[in-house]
Design a protein that fits this description.
Helix content is about 80%, strand content about 0%. The protein has helices at about 5-15, 20-30, 35-50, 60-75. Helix 2 (about 20-30) crosses helix 3 (about 35-50). It has four helices and no strands. The protein has one domain (about 5-75). It is rod-shaped and about 65 Å long. The longest helix is centred in the middle third of the chain and has 18 residues, at about 35-50. The protein starts with a helix and ends with a helix. The relative contact order is 0.09. By secondary structure, it is mainly alpha-helical.
Amino acid sequence: MIKTSTQNELIQYVYNELADPALEQLETALMHDNELADSCSDLMLLQRLLDGAAKSPSQQSIDNILNYSKSLSLQS
């Protein structure tokens, strides 16, 4: 099991937010620990999938919200 601190460091690494001393230590660890490298690879894949996810609602969702809002204002 990977320590929580290491998981946090992996997330920072994936998003290029890890400070230099910790970055060098983590990269060295990644070269020697296959489980850690696999976890890092999984996180990088998840990051790419999340970046490609839809970031705006569908037109149908917008229409439903607007129709609901109109129905509430008509009841007043």
